[in-house]
Amino acid sequence: MPAGFIPEDHAVLAHYISDHGDIWISEDVRTESRIYWQGRCCQSESDADGVSYAPYVHALFGFLLQSLAGTRPDEPVLVIGCGGGSLATMLDRAERAVELVDVNPLAFPIARQHFGLPSWIPCHLTDGAAYLRALPATRRFGAIVVDAFQGDVVPGHLLGAGFLSDVAYRLAEDGFLAMNLFEGPGRPDMAAHATVTAGRAVAPWGEVRLFEEAEGREGNVVLLAGAVAGLDAPGLLLPPRTMIAETRGSLERMRFRPVDVTV
Q1: pLDDT of residue 190
Q2: How far apart are CA 12 and CA 125, in angstroms?
Q3: Which CATH number fits domain 48-257: 3.40.50.11320, 1.10.1200.10, 1.10.645.10, 3.40.50.150?
Q4: Pairing of strands 123-125, 141-146
Q5: For the whole prediction, is pTM greater than 0.90?
């Protein structure tokens, strides 16, 4: 029987039992958008080609395309957290080198089967922090994106100073960190705390910025740290199959938030 949290106008495409929680894949019968549900939370929404409907994903994509991240094969974009793999798929279509890391062994095959993740994108089955620590000393990335959640919370060790210091070490000279945070009513200071930590660990030589979906309300907040001073609010560069106007409008409503890293 389909999970009660899946909307009635969605067709259930698949159900997987995972050590990290049950995973459901559903499709909106009207818009054909596909959703990756885990722990009763929407972890990813895209069309069948893997182009996201989430404004924060298009923001990440736009920021990355304003930079050189992924233009050098030996300094790809590293995405920690797969879900439906939308950002990696979109970067591949833009001819940017990208690699994925996730702890769930089902994540990559699900993303390939239901969300169009290309089979040639390198995928690493491990924890993101452990992956960075185990790399050769010379390995660098044009950008590191953290979009990993347990429910609607980023795992605590991916917000700590130790992990963020490892991120800083692995970034190319002109690289940056981009982290997706979900700011809810019960966590009003989470983005502020993450900003301070990232400012100390990642961006002594750069800048820290926040780009938010909805000021004062529940929503995604993108944390940027490193060589990000010149980044502008991005436009919709790769529209999904449907709901193009809605997706563009949601992206255009995102705003930079003033930050204070002196706390």
Answers
A1: 72
A2: 26
A3: 3.40.50.150
A4: unpaired
A5: yes
- What pLDDT score does 262 carry? 57
Name the region of 167 (left: φ>0; alpha: ψ -120 to 50; beta: rest): alpha
Q: What was the pLDDT predicted at 103?
A: 96
The tens digit of pLDDT for each residue in 89-103 reads 999 999 999 999 999
Rg (CA), the chain: 17
Nearest to residue 56, comparing CAs of 23, 19, 81? 81
Rounded CA-CA distance 99/241 in Å is 25
User: Residues near 261 by Cβ (< 8 Å), separated by ≥ 6?
Assistant: 195, 196, 199, 200, 203, 208
pLDDT at 215: 60
User: Which helix (H) or strand (E) covers residue 91, if one does?
Assistant: helix 86-93
CB crowding 57-76: b at 16 or more within 10 Å, else e: bbbbbbbbbebbbbeeeebb
